[in-house]
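User: Okay, second chain of the day. Same drill as before: sequence in, C-alpha cells out.
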Amino acid sequence: MARRSTPCTQADITRLIKAALAAGVGMERIAGVKLTRDGAVLLFGEQKQEHPDIPNEWDEVLKK
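Assistant: Same drill. C-alpha cells below.
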C-alpha cells in the first residue's frame, strides 16, 4: 500500500520559522507550529513558563 504524500516536511517547517524570523517576528512571539491537512500554521503568543525558577537548557542554545 502506497503512503500518502505529506503536506509539509520538516524542511518546510524550518523555512516557515526562518521566514518569520527574517520578517522581524521575535523568537519570543512564536508559540508553536500546528500541522493541518493543508500544511503548517505558525502560532503566535506569549510563552508561559510553568516553573520560572527552573532554568530551561534551550535558553542557552537560543542565545548563540
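The chain has a mean pLDDT of 82.

User: Thanks, on to the next one.
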